[in-house]
C-alpha cells in the first residue's frame, strides 16, 4: 500500500505539471486517424502482422502478396489495431516494409506516430532505426514525438541520448521552443536528474518565462526523488523570489522529500519537522489536506511509531482536515503490525462510523496482514465488514481465508466459507482439496520446552552460599593438616 500511496502522489503531480499551453497526449496517440474505407484490406494486413506462424522473412513474403492499395492511413490504422497484440519486431518489419513500398508517399505524421508507438513499447532498437531513417529521409519530428521519446529514453536510463536528441533538434527539423524545453525538463526530473535539468533551464531561460511554475514544480520533484532536502528548499526559495508562490502540490512534494529523508536518517524528527512545514503552508494560505497528513502517516507507519500515528490522526480531526480512508488504513496497519489488534479494530469501526467507504485494497491489505500474524478471527470480522459495504471482489479474500483456516485446523469454518462463495457464484482459485483433512496438513505450532526449576529463588541462593562456605572451610582444614 505504500507503493499505492507513492503512485497516487506521482499521478497527482503529473496531472498538474502541464499547463494549459502544454497538455501532453491524454488520449490515444493517433486518435485522429481517418476511418478506413477498406476494412477487408485492414483485416488482411492485421492478420499477417499478428500471425505467430513463420518468421519475419515469411511475414514480409506474405506482405509482398498484398494486392490492395497501400496508403499512409492504412499503415497507421494497421499499426494502431495490432500494436498491443503483435510482437514489436513484426510491427517494426511491417513499418519498414511499408516505408520501402510507399517511400516519400508515407506522410510524416504517420512516421511520427510509428515512432511514438515504439517509444511507448520501450523498444530502443526500433527507436534507433527509425530515428536514423528519419534523418536520412529528411523528415520532420513533431514536438509531441520528442516529448514521448524523451520520457521513454530517460525511463530506460538513457538520459544522455535524450539530451543529445534535444541538443540536435534542428537536425530533426523540430524547434527548441517552450514545449520541447519543458518536455526534456519534465522527463529528466521524473527520474531524479534535477541537476541536469537545471543545466537545461540555465541555457534556455528566455524560452521558459511563460511556464516558470511548471518548471519549478518539475525541479522540486526532481530533487525530492533524490531526497535532497537542501536543494529542494533552495528551489522553494527561488520560487518565492521569482514571485511564484508554492501551491499545495509543491508543499506536498517537499513534505514527502523531508519525511523520506528523516525516515532514514532522523526518525525522531519526522513529526516536528513535518508540522513546521504545515505551519509554513498555513502562513501562505495553503491548507494541508489529507494527502499531506498521509505522507507523514506513511513514514510513521514504516518506523512503527504507533503513538505518533494516533496523535496525527486526532490532530487531523481537530484541525478541520477530515481523514480519508487511506489515513485510517495507515493507522490501522501500524496497530495490527505492532500487535494492538483491539485498537486497530476500533480505528476501522471509527472509519465506518464516519461514513467512509474504502477501496477494496483497504480490506485486501489488512486481511492479508492479519492472516500473516495469525489473527484469523480478526480477519474474519474485517471480512464481514467488507461484505456489509457491498464492495464486491470477494474472491481473493476467500482464496486467502479458506486455506488459512484449514491449515489451522478449522475445516468447518473453511467449508462454510467455501459453500458461501459457491452460493454467490464466485470462482475460487484455491483447490477444493484444502477442505479434506486427509490431504491438508494442519500446522501445529511447537515450542522448545525449557527446563524450569521449581525451587524457590531465595532458597536456591542460600544453598549456593552454604556450599561455597563449606568448600572454603574444607580447604583451610587441608592446609592445616599439611603443615603439621
Number of helices: 24
Termini separation = 85 Å
- Look at the structure and give the mean pLDDT: 86
Oligomer: single chain
Class based on secondary structure composition and strand pairing: mainly alpha
Q: Note the run of SSEs as H and E.
A: HHHHHHHHHHHHHHHHHHHHHHHH
Poorly predicted regions? 1-32, 454-461
Structure description:
The protein is mainly α. Among the domains are: 245-354; 357-454. The protein is built from 24 helices and no strands. It has helices at residues 2-17, 39-50, 56-64, 72-82, 88-102, 108-120, 124-136, 143-155, 159-167, 178-190, 194-203, 212-225, 229-241, 248-265, 270-283, 290-302, 306-318, 325-337, 341-353, 360-372, 376-388, 395-407, 411-423, 457-483. Helix 3 runs parallel beside helix 5 (88-102) and helix 10 packs parallel to helix 12 (212-225). The N and C termini lie far apart (85 Å). The model is unreliable at 1-32 and 454-461 (pLDDT under 50).
Describe this structure in a few short sentences.
This protein has 24 helices and no strands.
What does the secondary structure layout of this molecule look like, with pairings?
Elements: H1 2-17, H2 39-50, H3 56-64, H4 72-82, H5 88-102, H6 108-120, H7 124-136, H8 143-155, H9 159-167, H10 178-190, H11 194-203, H12 212-225, H13 229-241, H14 248-265, H15 270-283, H16 290-302, H17 306-318, H18 325-337, H19 341-353, H20 360-372, H21 376-388, H22 395-407, H23 411-423, H24 457-483
Helix pairs in contact: 2-4, 3-5, 4-5, 4-6, 6-7, 6-8, 8-9, 8-10, 9-10, 10-11, 10-12, 11-12, 12-13, 12-14, 13-14, 14-15, 14-16, 15-16, 16-17, 16-18, 17-18, 18-19, 18-20, 20-21, 20-22, 21-22, 22-23
